Amino acid sequence: MTRNLSRRDFLKSSGIFAAAMALSACQPSTEDATERALPTLDTAPDSSPAPPTDEALLLHTLKRISFGVTPAMLAHAREIGLDAYIEEQLSPESHDNSETENFIEKNFETLNMTPKERFELEKFGQPIQEMIEATLVRQWRSSSQFYEVMVDFWTNHFNIFLAKNPCRVLKADDDRDVIRAHALGNFHDILSASAHSPAMLTYLDQATSKKDAPNENYARELLELHTVGVNGGYTHEDITELARVLTGWSATGFRDKNREVGQFLFRARTHDDGQKQVLGTVVPAGGGQKDGEMILEMLSQHPQTAAFISIKLARRFVADNPPASLISKLSQVFSKSEGDTREMMRTLLKSDEFKASVGQKFKRPLEFFISTMRVTGAEIRHTPRALTNQRRQMGQMPLMWSPPTGYPDYADWWTTTSGMLNRWNFALALTTGEVSGVEVDLPALVADAASAQDMVDLLSIRFLGEKLPDNARDILSDYAGTDIDKTLPEIAGLILGSPYFQVR
Question: How far is CA 57 from CA 254, 314, 317, 336, in A?
Fold first, then answer.
């Protein structure tokens, strides 16, 4: 039976994240007086943990570089060792994801269409729907979990709102040729690919920017969001000059005869060919498209870009407010390696700052959703659309953030009462079989349980990678009682909704 939470005493202060969810009582959705209220766990993970053991560090790392730690992942990492596992994940090409990719190719036909073919579809929303569903399936099913996390990071960094026309027909190409092609590569390469992407150029109105009417939108975001950052030392004059540099950078449309729709095109006649200056770099007159290439090279090597990208990586993988010492380390690696993402991530994951960050990141809705699917071994009975429908209720739908900033990566943004209620209700609905099209075989997960305590231990090890603290374990065991078959769905939902599952 589905239970919808009604009491809202969720948001309790915690040293782990700004507002950690504590398990609260709920009111049954029926008037059956025999039903019991769910127990309250007024505990949260330790905000001052001791330095992690080797096992704790392994689990901590796997949580940060995946969308959910499965038993198979954990067993494999233990077998080969953490360092070897990280290197294995940094080489996604070595993984066999053919089953997942074959599934995507079979079920999402628009991904391999040309932009013109997508545009001509009778079903206007099909390219949007299939891009979202394919993203969720890859995050859920791919064995290249670190790669998919980095795809998500760069997708957010170079954010494009999928529902803005004509992005709905262009984003699939951007996803393949920009983000996925360079997710673990060199920063200049992904920056350049993004700057040449018809999806990005149309999303930020660059495609129509001309010398007699320069549009500053893309120039502004290129500085503020993609490279040096809002505190990167640029002025409005730099934005104006960069907009002049980029005039003529466009994309082919239906009026461009003898050209395939949705390709990068430099329109020389609309380019301002005069001298410009951006962040102290003089761009000589007469350079044409090379003007933009010159500035992209300069921005990719700029010290402020090194710092800005380092901050964002550290915020994603370490803490909402990452330590300055780590930012300094990563900035140095960025400069020395010319923006090599692999080298930066190796440094980050081996740093003392990362090791000390256990429990300091809170799962955003997308991470929570995918991790529940992964740890429970959930299966889709009918269509992947069930993923999308459930995901929509919690916010953070992939590719659907309209501002160019990308989804926030701060706990404070997501720890609203309604947000926590939605997570609670989804966890309980999933484990009680109320999520349409999705099936979880809970009895199989606790087949060896001989007691309530055994059931709680097996579920917590499966979902969390470790046993719950004794106090939480005892509360749930007492609530489960002797009829563990009956209480199994609720116990599973309680663990998935607990503070222990909310951190990553």
Answer: 54, 17, 14, 28
- Phi then psi dihedrals of residue 327, to 5 deg: -60, -40
**Contact in structure between 86 and 60 (CB atoms under 8 Å):** no
Nearest alpha carbon to residue 490 among 474, 477, 503, 504: 477
Find the helix or strand (DSSP H, E) in which 266 lies: strand 264-266
**Cα distance between residue 420 and residue 437, in whole Å:** 23
The helix or strand, by DSSP H or E, that contains position 333, with its residue range, turns out to be helix 324-337
Long-range contacts of 324-328 (CB under 8 A, 24+ apart): 325/353, 326/351, 326/353, 326/354
Distances 246 to 191, 207, 346 between C-alpha atoms, Å? 14, 10, 35
Q: Which residues are within 8 A (CB) of 28 and not within 5 positions of it... i.e. 6 or more apart?
A: 1, 3, 35, 37
What is the pTM (predicted TM-score) of this model? 0.90
Q: What is the pLDDT of residues 99-123, one digit of tens each?
A: 999 999 999 999 999 999 999 997 8
359-403 pLDDT, tens digit each: 999 999 999 999 999 999 998 876 666 667 677 778 889 999 999
Residue 74 pairs in a beta bridge with none
